[in-house]
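We emphasize that the prediction below concerns an isolated chain of 344 residues; any contacts that depend on oligomerization or on bound cofactors are therefore not represented. The input was used exactly as deposited, without trimming of termini.
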Amino acid sequence: MPRKSRIDAAGALHHVIARGIERRVIFRDDHDRDLFLDRLGVILDQTKTHCYAFALIPNHFHLLLRTGRAPLAQVMRRLLTAYAIRHNRRHKRSGHLFQNRHKSILCQEESYFLELVRYIHLNPLRAGIVATTEDLEEFRYCGHGPILGRQANAWQDVDGVLRLFADDTSLARTGYRRFVEEGAVAGRRDDLVGGGLIRSSGGWTNVLAMRRDNLFRKSDERILGDGDFVDRVLSEAQERMERRYHLKAMGFDMESVADHVCRLLAIDREEIFTPGKEPAKVVARSLFCYFAVNELGTSQSELSYHLDLSAAAVSMAVKRGQKLVQERGYRFPCPPQGRKNLRM
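Result of the prediction step, given as a token string:
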């Protein structure tokens, strides 16, 4: 069955799970865990991503993240790649460390935020890593202790959890501790791992077909929330897909994007398609990359080929382009028929 496309949006709440390949151990000792958390902290800070909960289990981990200035896929790619390189080097191994894709579940905040914090933080207890909730408070590789003031992670958004219990920190911690202890007694919550009612629908294409035929079921394994929330999220994702399809059907291609950037900046096309570090050229190429990726869904590898840039350079150009759009108000109208044969 085809893999489903990820659903992401700035400021969205995601429950992320990543497992070792063939469920093998990914954290052999505390040094491994410290390496992972150090890298996580750096990436969260650089991307302005918020982390409310985390738990490291020997063969997998859980994170509760709110996306910031970078898409979740980019955050996780950087984290998993950096950790895998360091882990393999340290343990003198080669090959993949993680399963092909992490699992990310877009979550309805009002209904599930605290439930997910509790679910994630109780994982070490359920896995037998710690024996009691008291031991859990002292376990460094879970976000439970920092919320209670036992340890401190500069990158963990503790206040984002505590303020939901009380304004006073002491009262908030008492309420949070009671909430987690009640969850420990209640047992496992399998309902907190995604909708899961259309696992056999055949992927995103079939989901859209079901919507067109009024057969859409308000559930999806990539989304955790009530039916209206699921419907809204999928509608927004569908709108983006349909816009891209419409633009391409009109003949809108990368040549058209280049023409639009040239009109916006009053420049010649050479500013986009010839290398250089002059400020005007950097602005032009950045806007071109951002519009091509965001509006047309052009892959960064394709842009890398056409602009003779590395993948990392294209990624940075997209980020610069996004900032330019936000700061200067550049827009992307539907243009006339685009030309073909971008690069001969």
